[in-house]
Amino acid sequence: MRILLTGSSGWLGRYLAPMLRRQGHEVVGLDVTPGDDTQVTGSVADLATVERAFSVGGIDAVVHAAALHKPDIARHPTQAFIDVNVTGTLNLLRTAVSAGVSRFVFTSTTSLMISQAIRDEASSAAAWLDEASGPLAPRNIYGVTKLAAEGLCRIFHLEHGLPCIVLRTSRFFPEDDDTLTEPSGENLKANELLHRRLTVEDAACAHVLALDQAPAVGFEVLVISAPPPFARAEAGAIKHDAKAVIRRLFPDAEALFSARGWELPKRIGRVYDPSRAERVIGFRAETDFAVVLDALRAGQPLPFAHDPTYVSPLERRRATSVERDVGVT
Fold first, then answer.
1. What is the CATH number of the domain that holds 140?
2. Is the bond preceding residue 183 a cis peptide, omega within 30 degrees?
3. Whole-angstrom Cα distance, residue 166 to residue 280?
4. Which of 1, 166, 305, 316 has the most CB atoms around it within 10 Å of its CB?
5. What pLDDT score was predicted for residue 57?
6. 193 within domain boundaries
7. Percentage of the chain surpassing pLDDT 90?
8. Are 171 and 192 in contact (CB under 8 A)?
9. Mean pLDDT, to the nearest integer, of 286-315?
């Protein structure tokens, strides 16, 4: 297939584009910043740019991964999120229908499932989050606009028959968290693989599977995350004393962490359940918490990316523009 990939210069795009080519597909990359896999430079918020990307002809499928993300809230106005995340998705869906594409995969986020109440972790048990969780009450403009874009995908499936799969991906960014400081870095990422993270490689794999299955599936919203080692019945236990549950499941985990100067989580307030994605499109993340422990036991490199210096291409572009405007060289 010839696949239009938006966000082709971004963190996911740099893994997904080569993976799609290895599957025998041709990739047409669209991104606001140049990159090795980007043939069309411009914003999805600009309809003319979207139409230019389709003008190469023969676009069979769309993977829409371009977006403004939660850290961008500090740098971009509310209107920019509406323009990129909502209008940009609408531009792509309309053009995709006009072009007769066979499938559309949308990269969404588990972040839109987190209400303020869930974030405050006031409940006596961890929130067990799957596709049936709700009512949804996103707590910021990022989540609000991604939820609106999901609704557009659903409407275009219902009204135009466009096969659409929405992937609510959990965390896979390589940089440090923009709000959490303890534990930090690799320790935090390792802990999150218990309940709210996956690797970028697994995220890319989920998109490939969604593309393959979309025509047969029709429309679906799927949580994409590493499988948690806990059972749903343990939601109360991990909220009260996560370390005790982890020790039972992985007896040497605490010693392995201590040898690296790491800490296991004391409490876990939410768990993303990706089991439906395995049933519907056959996705199961290859890297989970057990794989991290395997790497620690063997003294091998960690199986996930961590780069505290990582800056997104969009932010690098913005910073360069600011420096140019103020005369910094």
1. 3.40.50.720
2. yes
3. 12
4. 166
5. 86
6. yes
7. 88
8. yes
9. 93
Q: Is residue 248 part of a domain?
A: yes
Structure tokens at 67: 């977006």
Domain with 292, as residue range(s), is 2-319
pLDDT tens track for 85-123 = 999 999 999 999 999 999 999 999 999 999 999 999 989
pLDDT higher than 60, residue 323: no
SS (H, E, C) 154-177: HHHHHHHCCCEEEEEECECCCCCC
Residue environment code for 119-152, b if the CB has 16+ CB neighbours within 10 A, otherwise e = eeeeeebbbbbbbebeeeebbebbbbbbbbbbeb
Q: What is the pLDDT of residue 318?
A: 62
pLDDT given for residue 24 in this prediction:
96
pLDDT digits (tens, 9 = 90+) for 136-176: 999 999 999 999 999 999 999 999 999 999 999 999 999 98
List residues bridging with 272 in a β-sheet.
129
Would residue 10 count as lying in a domain? yes
| CA–CA gap between residue 90 and residue 149 (Å, rounded) | 8
Residue whose C-alpha is closest to residue 118's, from 239, 269, 225, 268? 269
- Read off the tokens for 240: 């009260």
pLDDT averaged over the chain? 94
User: How confident is the model at residue 285, as a pLDDT?
Assistant: 98
Residue 326 lies in a domain: no
Please tell me the total count of domains within the chain: 1
